[in-house]
Amino acid sequence: MTDTPTRAGFVALIGEPNAGKSTLTNRMVGAKVSIVTHKVQTTRTRIRGVAIEGAAQIVFVDTPGLFRPRRRLDRAMVAAAWGGAADADIVVLLVEAHRGLTEGTQAIIDALKDRVSAGRTVVLAINKIDRVKAEVLLALSEKLNAAYPFSQTFMISAEKGHGVDALRGWLAEELPEGPWLYPEDQIADLPMRMIAAEMTREKLTLRLHEELPYQITVETEHWQERKDGSVRIDQLIYVVRDGHKGIVLGNKGETIKSISQAARVEIAEFLGRPVHLFLQVKVRENWLEEAERYSEMGLEFRDGNT
C-alpha cells in the first residue's frame, strides 16, 4: 500500500429497470446496501455503495432505472439517475443479455451522447450472461458497440458473480489517483435511517400486489439507541387510500406482522445488533405531491416538475 498510489472515484450504474444494477452494487460492495426485487423501478434514489479493491476505493452509485416517466415521482427518479451518471468518473451501462438491444436501451444510448460529457469513460456490462448462448452474446456485444463507442465491454452475471471481479479490478485501475473519500469500514453513504426504511420497503414490495408498492413509501420517524446496545426503530408506511391500508395490514394484521418480522431480521443483520421495529400505516392521499416525502427519499422535488 505504501508504494501504490491510492485511487478513488464514483462509478454510476445505469440501465433499464431490472437490469441488475442493485444486485451488482451489492455484489461489488459485499453487503446488501440496495434493495433488490423482481419488480421494476424499486430503486428510487441514488444509493452509494463503497467497495475497496487494492489501493482503490470505488463508490458505486446505484441509480433508479431509466424509463419513460409519467408521474412526478417517475420524473424525479429519472433525473436522479442521469444526475448520477453526469457526476460520475466512470459510467457503466448494464444491459440484460436475454433482452438484447431494446428500445429502452437504445434510448439510453442516444441520451448518453447528450447527457454525459465528451471524454467521460463509459463501459458496457452485459448482465445475466447465463441466460443466453455464447454466439448470441457475441452478436449483442457487436451490435451495442456499433451503437456507442464503449471504452470496454464486460460479460457478467451480477447474481452469480461471473465476471464481476474482472470488472471491479478494471474500474479500480481506471479511477483517478487521490485520497479515499470515505472511512475504510464504511460501505454506504446513506444515513442508517434511510437504509432501514429501504429494507422495510423492499419487504413491502416483495409481499404486496403488483401496483401497490409504487404508491407506498416508508420513513423512519424515530431512531432510539438503547442502553442494552439494541436500537428501537419506529417507521411510518404511507399509502394513498384506505383500501391500500387494509392490504398492507392484512387479515388480523398478519401481513404487516410478517413484513415487520422480515425487515427486523434484515436490519438487525445489517447493524449487527438487536432491533426492535415498530411499523405504523398512515393514509396520505397526496404524498406523491409533497416535497417533504421526496426529501426523505433523497430525491429533488423540483426535478418532478419537468
UniProtKB/TrEMBL annotation:
Where in this protein does the record put region G2? Answer: 41-45
MF terms in GO: GTP binding; GTPase activity; ribosomal small subunit binding; small ribosomal subunit rRNA binding
Domain Era-type G residues, every copy = 7-177
Looking at the keywords, is Iron present?
A: no
Q: Where is the KH type-2 domain?
A: 208-285
List the GO terms this entry assigns under cellular component, sorted alphabetically. cytosol; plasma membrane
The record's keywords, sorted A to Z, are: Cell membrane, Cytoplasm, GTP-binding, Membrane, Nucleotide-binding, Ribosome biogenesis, RNA-binding, rRNA-binding
| Function text | An essential GTPase that binds both GDP and GTP, with rapid nucleotide exchange. Plays a role in 16S rRNA processing and 30S ribosomal subunit biogenesis and possibly also in cell cycle regulation and energy metabolism.
The identity of this protein, by name, is GTPase Era
Native species: Roseinatronobacter monicus
